[in-house]
Amino acid sequence: MKTLMSFTATLALVAGAAAAEQVRVYNWSDYIDESLLEKFEQETGIDLIYDVFDSNEVLETKMLAGGSGYDVVVPSGTFLQRQIEAGAFQKLDTSKLPNFGNMWDVIAKRTAVYDPGNEYSINYMWGTTGIGVNVGKVKELLGEDAPVDSLALIFDPANMEKLASCGVHLLDAPVEVVPAALAYAGMNPDAKDDEALAKAEEVLMAVRPYIQKFHSSEYINALANGDICVAFGWSGDILQARDRAAEANNGVEVAYNAPSEGALMWFDQMAIPVDAPNPAAAHVFLNFIMDAQNMAAASNYVYYANGNKASQEFLNEDVIGDTAIYPNAAALENLYTTTPFPPKEQRSLTRLWTKIKSGT
Ligand code: N2P
What is the CB < 6 Å shell around ligand 1? Predict the structure, then answer.
């Protein structure tokens, strides 16, 4: 009896394994409405394994090493470009992407800078990097005129000295924080030479004693709970913190501003690793994401703009109507983009970042 049962169980397992196709997706944390993951499995019958990261550097290490085991990954534009050049991705087969026509030419034109012809990737979402504040706390410490939309909030030591007690987090993302320090210093945010990196070091070291943490995902809850009062982070993440605080009804008011000195505009691109175990299922996943209503549901949930034109009619007004998410012409004027760090400059940047994080 015992033998028979285990035999039956083994048979069931074998049958299950044969029937269940898998797709493995590696996306940013806090970046999707999770009900879409279930919907994908129900609609396609494909098992979805969904892992998350919060750092382009972590993803890049996996992509350059190869053998990640993922079918879909989501690097930002500048990282995508380097990884395409290193041969990390396979070209998309658009014949397997019937929803390709939903994509938005305005964004496709911009992403083609990193992925010429958009041959290897589709835009998932895009956004800006800026300043999240606990409005009440920051005004209490810096007064009604607190420069909540200026990089001076986080790079002027006089402000940071006052804010330190309530907690300031910065992204652990050197390619985003260094350009911001340069923009604050009135320099080209995309500069990568020794002089620029020395200037960024000076700006960052002057406020280093007042920075509690460099981290790229904890700030969402930390802002929402009132554990910190300032975060230099990603637009939609800060807007999610605003919502979480409102839902908790805890008296915390969170606001996001793109810095008046200029904000980085970045693009997160879905791509298929060259050694993906199941590229066919990867295309099924991409096509699911490119569905207008699915893409709208994702943006409505995470407060990031997307590269899908057809999704726009399904976006909530507090998403499509918010210029912090979908910038109008004036807001767009104030955004800059960056280019990848070449190897030598990247080594200098990595050294600089280690030094800034350690504070010595
Ligand atoms: C999602 C953040 C993604 C933006 N939490 C960084 N590219």
Answer: 28-31, 76, 234, 237, 266, 268
